[in-house]
Design a protein that fits this description.
471 residues; alpha+beta; Transposase Inhibitor Protein From Tn5, Chain A, domain 1; 2 domains; 19 strands
Length: 471
């Protein structure tokens, strides 16, 4: 029940002779009018519909009002629009704009079966959390939670969405691997203190190809960072090669992933790699003269200087064979800064300088993608007690990222937002004030005339019209 004070006027500092009075009586006004763009994109690409197919719904279909597809769409669109918590949806369930975006034909919820639900077109938090908290072995005999996610199908969905985004197979692709910290919010399953991050956290594994997210696997942090990489790569690359048999694949990662078993797997499976190596005295000894040369150049010019060298290298006991190592002997005004990478790419295919500067250094963009998902799409809201339900939350955030990335890729090209991050896209295109009027034949969405980016918004809408659903 709404509080009585919600319609009482609230006074503010006068504007000249005029009083300034505010009250909650504007009717159906939303701050998410631009969300229509997400609805249009999702209708064309079927992103939320495809992920909803990964669930098995054991509920009695004659008694439900919110399908799994509705629930997935509500959760994902909510994240994309900036609503990070399930608790937000107890208020959002009244929002006719979100109901419109989700696809509810009764945006005001006037036709709900039960009197207590009328005026609430969407699901509340207690219904939405069944997507996350249903055990993997639940069936129709379960009392409350009966919507079961197939974990294997969910993980493969992101690879399939990546493959579907291409009209034809590319000649080559690079898969970036990284692990990052995801802080623990309490005494949760899998709680462990990580010495490097100096906090209790999870350690999710991410795999990207450019801006495409292929893997977001939640793990406990009591493990070596690359653990499980081979299993994920086997699954992902197998799925890629099934459709793109001639595409060359390279994996790229920092020194935390430089492990014998990972390199050996790549060599045995026709996958190229470019990995950082932690520097040591033996490696630095190999480039003594190059470091001296770089130092002399830096002292002469006052600018950073780089000299590259490549050589064959094998560790004393951890590597099974000699491998090609590239060294960057760099000297900065602040001092020496040597770096090393190892690769199985042939020297005739790419020289040392280009391989380091053009290929390896480009992996830094992956950190921006992870930051987008964690900071802007709330991938770190893994606050349930169970590891599995937190994994599902991570996948919902990943799905919101896939949606926003697809919007950027398909409809923002040629606009000032072509390379914008998710929060800028949200504030510019999605968070637009609008009035909603529902009639018998139409739903009128009257967007604010003072929207500062209306020309960009209109152009994005026009470009969305040319987006074709994948075959």
């Amino acid at each position: 029940m709404k509080t009585e004070c919600s319609r009482k006027p609230v006074g503010f500092k006068p504007l000249g002779r005029r009083e300034v009075v505010a009250r909650f009586d504007g009717g159906d006004v939303t701050s998410d009018g631009g969300g229509l763009l997400l609805r249009e994109l999702d209708a064309r690409l079927g992103i939320t519909r495809g992920f909803a197919a990964c669930f098995t719904d054991h509920r009695n279909q004659d008694l439900i009002e919110h399908t799994v597809e509705d629930l997935v769409a509500q959760r994902v669109f909510g994240l994309a629009l900036g609503y990070e918590d399930l608790n937000d949806h107890d208020a959002l369930r009244h929002d006719p704009m979100l109901a419109l975006i989700v696809g509810k034909t009764d945006p005001h919820g006037d036709e709900r079966l039960h009197e207590r639900d009328r005026g609430k077109a969407l699901a509340g938090k207690s219904t939405l959390n069944r997507l996350e908290l249903t055990p993997s072995d639940a069936d129709s005999d379960a009392r409350y939670k009966k919507i079961v996610l197939n974990d294997e199908m969910a993980a493969d969905f992101f690879v399939d969405a990546f493959l579907a985004s291409y009209e034809s197979a590319p000649e080559d692709i690079i898969l970036d691997l990284d692990a990052t910290d995801d802080p623990i919010h309490g005494n949760q399953e899998g709680r462990f203190f990580h010495g490097y991050y100096k906090a209790h956290c999870y350690l999710p594994l991410y795999i990207f190809c450019g801006e495409h997210l292929l893997c977001a696997t939640l793990r406990t942090s009591d493990i070596d960072a690359p653990k499980g990489s081979v299993e994920e790569l086997t699954r992902i690359i197998g799925r890629i090669r099934k459709k793109w048999s001639k595409t060359a694949i390279t994996i790229r990662a920092d020194s935390g992933f430089c492990r014998e078993w990972l390199m050996a797997w790549c060599e045995d499976n026709g996958v190229e790699y470019v990995l950082g190596i932690a520097r040591n005295t033996r490696l630095q000894k190999e480039i003594t003269s190059e470091l001296a040369q770089a130092k002399a150049q830096c002292e002469q010019t006052g600018e950073p200087a780089r000299v590259f060298k490549e050589f064959s290298y094998i560790t004393r006991d951890s590597w099974s064979r000699e491998r090609r190592v590239i060294a960057k002997a760099e000297h900065l005004p602040a001092g020496s800064n040597p770096r090393f990478i190892v690769t199985n790419k042939k020297p005739e295919d790419m020289g040392a300088k280009a391989l380091y500067e053009q290929t390896y250094c480009a992996r830094g963009d992956m950190e921006n993608r992870i930051k987008e998902q964690q900071s802007m799409l709330f991938a770190d809201r893994t606050s349930t007690h169970f590891l599995r339900s937190n994994q599902i939350r991570l996948w919902f955030s990943s799905l919101a990222y896939v949606l926003m990335s697809a919007l950027r890729r398909t409809a923002l090209h040629g606009t000032p937002l072509a390379h914008a991050q998710c929060d800028r896209i949200r504030l510019t295109l999605l968070k637009i004030g609008a009035q909603i009027r529902v009639t018998v034949r139409k739903v009128w969405v009257s967007l604010s005339e003072s929207t500062p980016y209306r020309d960009i918004w209109t152009r994005v809408w026009m470009q969305l019209a040319s987006v074709v659903a994948p075959a």
